Amino acid sequence: MLTFIARRMIQSVLVMIAVGLITFGLLRFVGDPISNMVGQDTSIAEREQLKEDLGLNDPFVIQFANFAKNAVKGEFGLSYTLRVPVSQLLSERLPATLELSIMSALLALFIGMPMGIYTAIHKDSWLTKFFLSSSLVGVSLPTFLIGILLILLFGVVFRWLPTFGRGEVVDLGWWTTGLLTWSGIKSLILPTITLAIFQLTLIMRLVRAEMLEVLRTDYIKFGRARGLSMRALHYRHALKNTLIPVITITGLQLGSIIAFSLITESVFQWPGMGLLFIQAIGNADVPIMAAYLVLIAFIFVAINLMVDILYVVLDPRLRTTVGD
Amino acid sequence: MSLLEVKNLTVKFPSRKGDFTAVDDVSLSVEPGEILGIVGESGAGKSTVGNAIISLLEAPGYMSDGSIWLKGGRIDDLDENLKSTIRGRRIGMIFQDPLTSLNPLETVGAQLIETIILHLELSEKAARARAIDLLNQVGIENAEERVDQYPHQFSGGMRQRVVIALALCSDPEVVIADEPTTALDVSIQAQILSLLRKLCEERNVGMIMVTHDMGVIAEITDRVAVMYRGKLVEIGETEKVLYKPTHEYTKSLISAVPRPDKKADRFPLVTYIEDVETLPEDVKLSDLWLGKTRDYEDFEGSMLTVERLKLDFVTKRAIFKRNNTYFTALKGVSFDIKQGEVFGIVGESGSGKSTIARCVTGIYEPSDGTVSICGADLNKLVDINKRNYYRRQTQMVFQDPFSSLNGRMRVENIIAEPIIFHKQAADKTEVRKIVHELLEIVGLGTGAARKFPHEFSGGQRQRISIARALATRPRFLICDEPTSALDVSIQAQILNLLKDLQEELGLTMMFISHDLPVIRQMCDRVAVMQSGEILEIAETEALFNTPQHSYTKKLLELMPKFRTSA
Amino acid sequence: MQEDNISWAQDMRRRIADNDIWYSFTHTPIAYISAIIGLSLIALAIFAPFIAPQNPFDLASLDLFDASLPPSWLDQGDQRFLLGTDDQGRGILSTIFFGLRISLFVGFTSVFLSLLIGVSLGLISGYVGGRVDAVIMRIADVQLSFPAILIALLIDGVFRTVVSKDLHEDLALYVVIFAIAVSGWVQYARTVRSSVMTEKIKEYVQAGQVIGLGSARIMIKHILPNVLGPVFVIGTLHLALAIIIEATLSFLGVGLPPTTPSLGTLIRIGNEYLFSGEWWITIFPGLTLIILSLSVNLFGDWLRDALNPKLQ
Q1: What topology does CATH give the domain A90-322?
Q2: What is the pTM of this model?
């Protein structure tokens, strides 16, 4: 079991190195870093000097090592357009994105899971049919359109909820939160729903598919033949077996919620990392793009690793066979 | 009043092409302490009877007629709540596959205790004691310890014992066992059967044993019911039904079972079942393409010589090759097959017998040793034309009729492919002619050409597979368990066909099987294999009469005792 | 031969009548209704130049007096513009027809490209195995760590930095297609790979080897046709996703420029006028997008169930 986790960790590190190489390639080879930093009147000699100072003449491996060292510390240089360290920009915006993503993930999970279980157990009820068809609508609706429709309805027509920004936030020093003020919470509602709907439908369909799969297995049939009640079979035997694959995918979903939030942030002008990233793409601001990518990749890899460990804890087949 | 009575049971499965009657007006009964066998081939409806009794019919099946009585009380019309007081409590059930019958995430003990508490309302502690006691009774050693283990920590046979313990949890009056030993190896099969017999007698339980295996029926049942296409054709004392069958179907079914005690010339013609067509009388092989002189050169010596054949599979790939973990499937095997001989290889699953076939045909590359066909070492042949020349002479018939044919190709294209690849015909018209001839020869008729494999039954598919193997006009035919996936009557037909072809075409054959009676009927010489090694090679009759190796003796002892004539 | 052809035709007719998928299609209203709607939208897109009331790209025909007119059934609506006009006086209905054309073009081409890349890599990965498989699958794993939209954004972002602005506008369409295609291949590759892994140990493949057929022939002629079922399902669902991704990219302002507006671009343009009450500029293209992706998704969902023998 320890070797299993160790192997996963090595894999995670490899993935991070791969992502690092891509982002490094971006930084180094896409566009000309020097001309992005200096004005037009800088002389060639000064440019060469700057190149030397920045270590851009070093061999590739050393440059990458330096990049990696800085990346671990969170240093990605200055933003081309904003002239501010990227690390500072990201840390300012991280709380906004995380608050939005986590709230959405919770919403998606706590509504999607019961819906999935319900639709698997009550295969033919009208509520199941309703859930299933509305989930297809949910998958078919682009996130930004959901946002626009919600804005139109609650912001423009009824004027109940704010449609952009975080509202009033409280600065805790290391974290800014919108959860402590009424306006902050109100501002969170529409973006959270917008972001959650797509994930919710995914989770629901996934739980349903897994649960149906488990309900078809022999041990459920044998359980019925032993006289176990449907209730015990559904909630004790089937659910537990369903949850293992579900955990994996939901874990990965959390990562993609953070990435997906950039669409929601763009629609609601939510001052998070995603919005920053979109603006960076528009402005070809490579350091921000690079830093965002590395950060997202790191979150993904970390979640992945946790999911793998959880998997081992939950599944006795892995617990014993992987160990010896 | 019988313990369990089934009266006029009829089960239907509605589909868009009309209702399918899976069980048609079946009546039977079981007494305490008695084992009633229900035997039949696939599609006979035997499992459906068992499922109907415990009211677990698979959707959309339903009982359209009849009634089921347990100790005089009718149980089929109870509502779902009352049914679950019978299911598991008064009627236990055992399924075929022990590997999938248990919840993988809960310990064996937890599953036992859950069931015991549900039915007997004992305390947690008493239930646990009973669980351990039950495990002891079904022959699991160290039950104290093993009760807390997970299903994957038990072997297949041990898991089936756990499944039996679960079925016996609440002292049921009736146990239904649906092919309880089919997924197990012969040696374990015998143990499980005697355990069931013992438990049945000790606890005075009435048992219904659903199986396709005449050997199992002969071994442990008191009475037997024979089913054919949903109908009960014969029921009576096992001895009487097996040795003095009255119904035509029973007679033909029993005559199709290969005899373990002596070699018969052919299987008596099995007349009752449809799609029976052995080599038609009016097809003369010598007039056809297949029967014409083949363009191979004659040679001296053995058809196949295998020397010190070794094969390792990598089971765990490490970063460095030398750290890989290997599983040795073949540990230096040597034998040879003479021209015109039928050579048998027998062994249990995992003995490496199929691996040999795959090494000979070039599907696997041996790690060491040589394989020579017609005197030529295939691995040393570089010239592709030469290689194809030898490849063409060796063909194979596979085990699984469902996966051995490409489902996306029409039958004619499946058979034409080797003909075209080895340039055996001048043009398309000739290819088509040859394909039609081959289909006639294997008894399918030319109408089969334009169909797809899924439109055929297992036995018919195996005929297509044989036609494909013949399409290169091979001299050497390898049959890898060609009938083990088939019903016994279909098996008899296919074996007859193979025998006819072997004789008419003078084929050399390597015949691989786990089934000793089949080997006895088919082979001239036999090799016995166990874990990658050949233990003994002997003439068939000598092997069966005077086995030398202890493992061979054990296999022969475990062979079903069932004989076709008393 | 003549006789043979007749029996062949009869054979086909019988096969279609017997076919479970065709039966399911004709007996599932959701399946055929969504197919009809989807096909109608495709027809509208193909024939847009002939059926659109105006040509929104003909600058000469635009008149700023027509700008921001509401749909024709409202006050101040104009009979010429059924669904109203945008800020430049283009008829919304006509822009939708042309936008649909671009959205569908991007959707189909990128799905086709994605499928081509994914299926070939999956086939090679599954059949060859070993190191080739390990490399392809690791790349797939890494890419799978990022949502498709992010990959597409990234590719688009890189192009932006490399190419000059004018050139970028001309190339935008192809960049978007490329970005979506590259972001989507993994699913095909993984599905095909795992199907190939199960297929290649089946006995019909070994039968091919025993006959002496080469690897390429076995792969393409025998294995490929047997793994295509799920590919069609993924392809259909991916079409809906590709259309959504393109719309999202365009909405975010990094997709197609206003000179070649897709549905997403139209929504983006309209979004700016949402608060001033000119809702029709956004809502009608939005509804079209929803109907399009919903019909494709519903069809794909049905197809998946119909092709999955376990559910029957």
Answers
A1: MetI-like fold (1.10.3720)
A2: 0.81
